[in-house]
Amino acid sequence: MAPSPDTLRRLLERGDFAAALDLLAMALPGPPTGATRKNVLSGWRVFVRWLEIEGCSLLNVPDPPAFAQAYADWLATEYGGVAATVNNRLVQVRRLYRLLGELGLVQVNPFVSVQGRPHAPHERRPVYTADEVARLLEHASAEERALVLLGAHGGLSGPEVRGLTFGAVAEDRSSLRVAGRTVACTPQLREALDAWARLRGETPLYGPPEGLLFSRGGAALSDAELRAKIFRLCGRAGVPYRAWHALRHAAGLKLLAEDATQREVTAALGLGSRTAVKPLIQLSSRPDLTARSARRGQGGRKRSEPVQ
Questions:
Q1: Three-class SS of residue 219?
Q2: What Å distances lie between residue 210 and 63, 135, 165, 228, 265, CA to CA?
Q3: Which residues are CB-neighbours of 144 under 8 A, at least 6 positions away?
Q4: What is the pTM of this model?
Q5: Residue 149: enclosing H or E segment and its boundaries?
Q6: 96-124 confidence digits (pLDDT tens)
Q7: Is 1.10.443.10 the CATH number for 130-297?
Q8: Where are the domains positioned within the chain?
Q9: What angle do CA 233, 121, 112 make, to 5 degrees?
């Protein structure tokens, strides 16, 4: 439902931004309490705060390019140059002016051509460092230790870990099968899986337990439950929390540090394309690997298939 342009103009001209934004938000997709609407409204409120700081008008913008660039520069300072956040805020304010234009309240969208910030490799690929992984393991329970190492050494994704069964793990813990690939277990991961299996009831007579490695009430962990386990462990270890894929990226960096090729890392992590590994290569101590891989692809000697 589109808000009344006359009502919006009156609210904006008298500086009642809160009411105006709430009214404008009615034109956004999704339920009123949905995440999309909340996020966009949050971005609009940040923009209004900047307007008040700078004493600028929302509707009357004399120099649109300079106005938009000034806000982009302020965002970069406000958010410490984090590209993802800056770019999201710019998308949100661009959407605000698009709605205002559709309602006939502005003629020009100042943000239509403003450039966002390029993502640095470490922002595209958040990662737990080797030191951070070691600190997590120092504070981890048997279950948490197995979880961390399945990500940071095995390179499993969150859904792969949540669906992993004891039957997918080799009896000697040397490897496991997941999503059609074989993952070699490091000595630390083997020990962690051994310890967790014993706690779950493994005995020499009856062998390993059956079913899921990690469960709650017999059901697989939800994504939120898995994240919560890592979040609590990070709090105890004094390590900044990052999403599960940061553990997976740690596995990729570990493989690169052990001289794995781009192709081998792609296969080990179960990625669809070698392109996905490039940001990790730039974070590694082997940033020239991408260029060398490209030269091989143009006629150089081909390596054998990666060893799993």
A1: strand
A2: 68, 31, 7, 24, 30
A3: 136, 229, 230, 233
A4: 0.58
A5: helix 142-152
A6: 999 999 999 999 999 988 877 665 554 55
A7: yes
A8: 5-119, 130-297
A9: 115
